[in-house]
Amino acid sequence: SAVSPEKLAQLTTLYTEHAVSFIDRNKDKPFLLYVPHTMVHVPLAVSDKFKDKSGAGLFGDVVMELDWSVGQILDAIKRNGIDDNTFVMFTSDNGPWLNYGNHAGSAKPLREGKGTMWEGGYREPCVMRWPGKLPPGTKCDELASTIDIFPTVARLIGAQVSPERKIDGKDIWPLVSGAPGATSPHDVLWCYYDRQLRGVRDRQFKLVFPHEYRTLDGKPGGRDGVPVNYKQRKTGQA
Asked: How far is CA 207 from CA 128, 152, 169, in A?
């Protein structure tokens, strides 16, 4: 069923309240909490708590509320005394939906955005936290992907990934934990979109195969939730 504008504006708050309640109820046993926020996906909406508060328009307000949500969840972990025994990861699945313009954010200085296999389409930041286990204030620029989350978490909980079920993900705990000299278990990352292999990259180089991709081609994106049309372009075109 359709979600009313009023309920849409409350989604981030509702997700946060459910997440905090889940932590409070499960603090005494191992748990997995997955919080896939609807925001900042369009259509954007924000609660009155953060409406017009960011000074950066509706998109900025929505990001501000997401920041609040993360803080509430981290506070719940600390309040329940499980801070040192909880692994927290924050990341995203793709870059900005550029034809939505001021409702989409930016991937700059990376090229293009969501729906492409240029770097702006799939290259995402990831922040991880686990006091006493992950060295604070460090960064890692080795190749890794969301496909690596499953085998890494399986290792942490002592679960075996069946060798009979071939998966592409690798255990990246040495990267996550800051092991000295740790390097990516991936020789390359394969860049698929719409079942088409569009590129292959390693740490230093990226090979892009001939393909069509969507682009704004220099024109501005849409305004206030109304997208503009993409143009189809072929690689190698001037």
From this structure: 29, 28, 21
